[in-house]
Design goal:
By secondary structure, the chain is α/β, with parallel strands linked by helices. The protein folds into two domains: 1-39; 50-208, Glutaredoxin, CATH 3.40.30. The protein has helices at 2-39, 88-99, 122-133, 152-157, 160-163, 198-208, and strands at residues 55-57, 63-65, 73-79, 104-110, 138-139, 176-179, 185-189. The strands form two sheets. Strands 5-4-3-6-7 form a five-stranded mixed beta sheet, with helices on one face. Strands 1-2 form a two-stranded antiparallel sheet. The radius of gyration is 23 Å and the shape is globular.
Length: 210
Amino acid sequence: MKRVVAVAVVSVLSLAFSASLSLAEKVEKKVEKKAEEKSAESKGGEKVAPALSFTMDSLEGKPVKLSKYAGKVVLIVNVASQCGLTPQYEGLEELHGKYKGKGLAILGFPANEFGKQEPGSNKEIAEFCAKNYGVEFDMFSKVVVKGDGKCELYQFLTSKEKNGKFGGEITWNFEKFLLNKNGEVVNRFAPGVKPDAPEVIKAIEAELAK
């Protein structure tokens, strides 16, 4: 009899333990869901697209919520100061001057993954951009766009699962992602495609007109 009772007690305890685990898993999933929802909200409480749900540091080291760009057409570019494509800064600045008043925001993210062509500090990068190209579009602190330590923004942009046909690893400096006013990635341009290339201008103007 004692043995039967003991077995029954063990069975009850096992069921209770399983139920508690199931409840814990549900609670954990609920917490994760709320965290995701919270990260996808802007200051006004409105949801923004995943690409704009991140907070990045400006070139001066101040946190910037990318949700501030919701409602604008956004061009995201990984840049470098010692690359053969570095003169594209000039074209990007021209785009900024021509279209900023119409709703275009250009975001530059220095990265040192390709040929180690962005070795400087954030301060040195800022001085280089101002002195050589008079850059006035928004620049951010140096990040990792490929490999170990890849920042969250570029984890999203390069994910084929999350970013569909526009996903895939960054191939070199000055790769460009175009986001529409809803913060959705709608185009991607290879490093060699200049900022003033007809296809880039056409894509930007088409999104600004919507």
